[in-house]
Amino acid sequence: MMVSPRDIGHRDAPPDDGTSAHARGSFFGRRKGHKLRIHQADLIDNLLPHLALDIGAPAPERLADLFDGGPEDVRLEIGFGGGEHLIAEAQAFPNIGFIGCEPYVNGMAKILSQIEAHNLRNIRLYAGDAAELLAWLPPRTLARIDLIHPDPWPKRRHWKRRFVQDATVAAMARILKGGGEFRFVSDIDDYCAWTLAHLMHSSDFVWTAERAADWQKPWEGYTMTRYGRKAEREGRVAAYLRFRKIS
Fold first, then answer.
1. Separation CA 195–CA 209 (nearest Å)
2. Where is this region: Disordered (predicted)?
3. pLDDT digit string (tens) for 7-53?
4. Cβ pair 98, 118 in contact under 8 A
5. Is residue 26 part of a domain?
6. What distance in Å separates the CA atoms of residue 123 and residue 111, rounded to the nearest whole number?
7. What confidence category does residue 69 fall into, taking pLDDT thresholds of 50, 70 and 90?
8. pLDDT tens by residue, 174-223
9. Does residue 110 have a known ligand-binding role?
10. Does 131 have pLDDT greater than 60?
11. Rounded Cα–Cα distance for residues 18 and 165 (Å)
12. Which residue from 73, 108, 164, 206 lies 20 to 30 Å from 12 (Cα-Cα)?
């Protein structure tokens, strides 16, 4: 897939009513699929409460206080699906704290099984709407936000349901530290162009790519998800976009 600055722009996009939509909440998908196995249900009932963020309470001034041992930085992954990428990152960077947001119950059950199996202590979870989580997080506290293979909502009338909107770009800019990054992966050309348009329209971010390989190939250490492997088998090519928060 080829994406370049001349491919992007708002000229083909409908009026962005994402601000009002995301102020109310941004989750439009299913929250539960197949029936959970007995142990998965037990993890939801007994392990998740120990790891879940309570956004009904005031956010801590330092996100590191959410974790045992005080990690040096905190990252967020939005919509982690089966959790392959998030688990691999948490294992590779034990001194980093990770927040995973996923409203889909079955995805939450899968990652809880992996957290238990690997005895991971540097992950916290939010089983709800990412827009609400972004509004709760304190300003300039995250080092990175990852959004990997999000639902593209391909029909034009559903574009307002996409996570990337002007409102969420502004919310991410508020909570990222200066020099922090928003990383986006998708195999849907239209959503990649949409994301480039919204991020380059923002005065808070700069696209880090200097050559085609910078978006055509995964960044170093990237863990391919099951969805990513499926896209490759079906001949779809992903783009790997990185945007740096301007200090």
1. 14
2. 1-26
3. 333 333 333 333 333 444 443 344 555 678 888 899 999 999 999 99
4. no
5. no
6. 10
7. confident
8. 999 999 999 999 999 999 999 999 999 999 999 999 999 999 999 999 99
9. no
10. yes
11. 5
12. 206
Residue 39 within a domain: no
Cβ–Cβ < 8 Å for 213, 149: no
217 marked among binding-site residues: no
Distance CA 118, CA 247 (A): 36
Annotated active-site residue in 16, 151, 204, 214: 151
| 53, part of any domain | no
Amino acid letter, residue 192: C
Q: What tokens appear for 46 in the block?
A: 């007994």
Least confident segment among 24-33, 89-98, 99-108, 119-128: 24-33
Q: Which domain holds residue 128?
A: 73-245
Q: Give the number of other Cβ atoms within 10 Å of residue 146's Cβ.
A: 21
Counting the structural domains of the chain, the total is 1
Cα–Cα distances in angstroms (integers) from residue 158 to residues 17, 122, 125, in the given order: 11, 35, 27
Q: Are 197 and 14 in contact (CB under 8 A)?
A: no
Which residues in the chain belong to E strands, given as ranges?
A: 73-78, 96-101, 123-126, 142-148, 176-186, 205-207, 239-245
Tell me whether residue 236 is in a domain.
Answer: yes
| DSSP symbol at 101 | E
Residue 52's SS3 state is: strand
Residue type, 175: I
151 is in an annotated binding site: yes
Residue 72, annotated as binding a ligand: no
Whether 73 is catalytic: no
State pTM to two decimals. Answer: 0.86
